[in-house]
Amino acid sequence: MSFETIVFYVFAALIVFAALRVITASNPVHAVLFLVLAFISSAGIWLLLEAEFLAITLVLVYVGAVMVLFLFVVMMLDINLVRLREGFWRWLPFGAALAGLMAFEMIWVLGSHETSDGMVAVKHAADYSNTKELGRLIYTDYVYPFEIAAVILLVAMVAAIALTLRRRKDAKSQVVSEQVAVKKADRLRIVPMQSEKLLAGHPSEKLLAGHPSEKLVAGHPSERKD
Questions:
Q1: Exposed/middle/buried for 136, CB within 10 Å: 0-12, 13-18, 19+?
Q2: Which of 18, 56, 62, 90 could form a disulfide with 38 if both were Cys (CB 3.0 to 4.6 A apart)?
Q3: How far is CA 174 from CA 14, 178, 180, in A?
Q4: Which among 33, 41, 47 has a CA at the least distance from the CA of 16?
Q5: Looking at residue 126, what DSSP letter applies?
Q6: d(Cα 133, Cα 49) in Å, to the nearest integer?
Q7: Which residues of the chain have pLDDT under 50?
Q8: How buried is 103 (Cβ within 10 angstroms: 0-12 exposed, 13-18 middle, 19+ buried)?
Q9: Are 18 and 38 in contact (CB under 8 A)?
């Protein structure tokens, strides 16, 4: 048994163990962490298959973004575990039938002669680029399925935003077109006012006369009468 085979069985055992713990863990946070372990182990198998780009994408996208998002959502939600376990026995027959169907499909695929007989791993040259080969296949042989998948994901994203959007009556928002179309006459109004002359004996006159900073210098414009 070669070293690659041993590493493959180690990663495969970790994936099976993590997958079982995802569905059997009582704590949702622990289930998400075991799912992260399953993704990392799957990335290790991708590396054994010389698919470095897929392995890095699996770690960066699923583990680095999606699983972190799931973890924060699960931690912020107040999940009632008692109510969650109430429907376990009711859905157990359906889950067992579905698991049996998936197991039958995997055994059927792995047991066929096209996948088990005479299949040897291909050794690539030193200058082989997995990313270049993957891009060539996506944009030549599988360009239509790739574009259809992109459109479906876009529709799903728009639908999720539309379903979660809630309009509040008391919320204030800006209308940029109305702000740009505003003129000076709409916001500013100049009101003419007549100047008032101080009467003799008015308190303001005494205040100005007695204040030291209000002494007028000869020739100052303020000394002139209107």
A1: exposed
A2: 18
A3: 53, 9, 11
A4: 41
A5: T
A6: 14
A7: 211, 213-218, 223-226
A8: exposed
A9: yes
